[in-house]
Design a protein that fits this description.
- This protein is of the alpha/beta class.
- Helices cover about 35% and strands about 25% of the residues.
- The protein has a six-stranded mixed sheet with strand order 5-4-3-6-7-10, sandwiched between helices.
- Helix 4 runs antiparallel to helix 5, helix 4 runs parallel beside helix 9 (about 275-290) and helix 7 (about 210-220) packs parallel to helix 8 (about 255-265).
- The longest helix is centred in the last third of the chain and has 20 residues, at about 305-325.
- The two termini are about 50 Å apart.
- About 30% of the residues are buried.
């Protein structure tokens, strides 16, 4: 049941007239009853009838009838609102994530990979009307999650991203980009976007990044590139102990920003540099605003009019008053 509203609330001002009507009745009530002047009433006995006492009930019924009519004219009603939304301009997005060993560097907290996963998770959750896929790459690349509207699949795939030596270590930017393009080339979406993130320079793979960029452009795919890593030195993993623990040392951060800028410019995208957790979050928020999905929202209003019972009550009060006046109180003096 929806909340009661009134279509014509201005009619409630009529309630201001009721005290005047009641005052007028009290002032004139004696003049409304026939009177007989006699010298003495000693010769008359009293019948003990209660009709004289309850006769004002007739006027109470009339006031109630007027009150019900006023509320009915104000048109009380309840409304149930149902919403239906549909995407009128869907976007297909593939996130291509570098999972090479350098993504374990600790210049972002707790490391680059975990910082990225947290921000990317929020990005996915804020795109409920788009299809999203996930590609991971190092020296090679593979699809972690196909392009899908089922966000739980994407989020589970994102959560499972880690450095596990499944892919040979290295950074094949061209491989990651080409794999992402392959996931989108047959898409029928109005807009196709790749978010390519890396923390290094292209040093592996058999597909050149420039070639993959040209292919993306040919298929009308926009590429946003993100270079992740602080400026200067950072703690990088360089070896692993027998018990599986990484050893870290300070090393120079190297990101091929010119390449990433070129890819973004060639495809109509934009290049970003994430030097901290907060900056990475800001970047994904900006991409989220740049790639907006047009949503059509339809609202359905179901009105349930409540004035009819009030009109019936007003009619019953008036009929009851008239009936009593024409019967029980007809001969009362």
């Amino acid at each position: 049941m929806g909340k009661v509203t009134f279509l014509n609330p201005e009619f409630f001002w009529l309630f201001a007239l009721l005290p005047i009507a009641i005052g007028w009745y009290v002032w004139k009530r004696k003049e409304q009853t026939a009177t007989l002047k006699i010298s003495s009433t000693k010769g008359f006995g009293t019948s003990g009838s209660i009709l004289a006492k309850i006769k004002p009930l007739l006027y109470v019924l009339r006031i109630l009838a007027l009150s019900f009519i006023i509320v009915a004219m104000a048109r009380p009603r309840t409304v149930d609102i149902s919403n239906k939304t549909k995407s009128t301009k869907g976007i297909d997005i593939v996130m291509a994530i570098d999972v090479s060993g350098s993504m374990l560097a600790k210049d972002l907290k707790p490391n680059r990979m975990e910082a990225l996963k947290k921000v990317a998770k929020s990005f996915v959750e804020n795109r409920p009307n788009d299809r999203i896929g996930l590609v991971v790459y190092a020296s090679e690349a593979y699809t972690k999650s196909p392009v899908t509207s089922d966000k739980s699949i994407v989020l589970n795939a994102l959560q499972s991203v880690k450095y596990d030596n499944v892919l040979q270590d290295g950074t094949g930017i061209g491989m990651g980009l080409a794999t992402a393009v392959n996931r989108l080339k047959d898409s029928k979406a109005k807009s196709k976007v790749i978010i390519l993130l890396t923390d290094g320079v292209n040093n592996n793979g058999f597909i050149e990044p420039e070639t993959a960029s040209d292919i993306a452009k040919e298929y009308g795919i926009k590429v946003y590139t993100i270079g992740i890593g602080t400026n200067g030195m950072a703690e990088f993993p360089y070896a692993m102990t027998p018990n599986g623990q990484f050893l870290f040392r300070m090393m120079q951060v190297e990101i091929d920003e010119k390449l990433l800028q070129s890819i973004a410019k060639n495809t109509g995208g934009k290049y970003f540099r994430a030097t901290s957790n907060e900056k990475l979050k800001i970047i994904y928020n900006e991409i989220n605003k740049l790639e907006t999905t047009e949503i059509e929202e339809l609202k359905f209003y179901d009105y349930d009019e409540k004035y009819r019972p009030l009109a019936l009550l007003a009619g019953l009060c008036l009929l009851l008053e008239i009936g009593l006046r024409k019967t029980i109180f007809k001969s009362f003096i």
